[in-house]
Amino acid sequence: MSLINKPAPKFTAPAVINGDEIVEDFSLEQYIGKNEVIFFFYPKDFTFVCPTEILAFQEKIEEFEKRGVKVVGCSTDTEESHLAWLMTPKNQGGIEGVKYPIVADTAKTISMAYDVLAGDYVEDENGQIQFEGVAPIAYRGTFLIDKKGMVRHFVINDLPLGRNIDEALRMVEALQFVEEHGDVCPANWEEGKDAMKPTREGVADYLSNH
Length: 210
Hints:
The chain is of the alpha+beta class. It is 26% helix and 27% strand. It is found in: Cytoplasm.
C-alpha cells in the first residue's frame, strides 16, 4: 500500500507533549491547513538506536519550526512509558529535553494504518489470532504530510537502520520550494541549488548546465 498523494490516516490517541504532560486526545488534525508535519514512527522506548533519532529531531527542531513544520513521534509503547523515558537524563539513556509530541499507539492501529507495523495479525486454523512477522512494533517510518493533510513523501527503515534527519529536512525544503515556485527538484537537490522547469526544454537546459 502506498499513501503517496492520499490523506494521512486520521487518529486520536494519548500522547506526551512538551516533554512532561500527558494528553488523552492528541490528533494531527490540529495542524491541517496551517502546518506541514513530519510524523515518524520508532520501535520502542528505552532502546538503542531510537534515542539517537529522537534527540536528533530535537536538535533540528528549530530548523523545522522556522519552516512552519511540526514534528511528531510515535511508537507502540504507552504514554506512561513515553513520559518515564522523557524524564530520564541523556546520560542514563533517556530523552530528557525532547519537547515535540510523542504519541502512544498501544492499540497498534496507527502503525497498521500507516503500514509500518513489523508484521501482521492473522487467524490460525483453530480460529485464534496470531502475530506473524518480526515483532508487534513499528518500523522506522517517516512521513511528510502537507498542509492539506496529504502524504507527499515517506520512507520506512528496518529496525536496526537509523534514519537521516537532514534528509527529512531536505524533503520539507523541496516540498515547500515546489509549492512556492512550481519548479521541480532534481536528484540531490538542496536549498539554494538550481531546480528545473517541468518541461522538456527545462530538463534539457538543466542537464546541459550540470
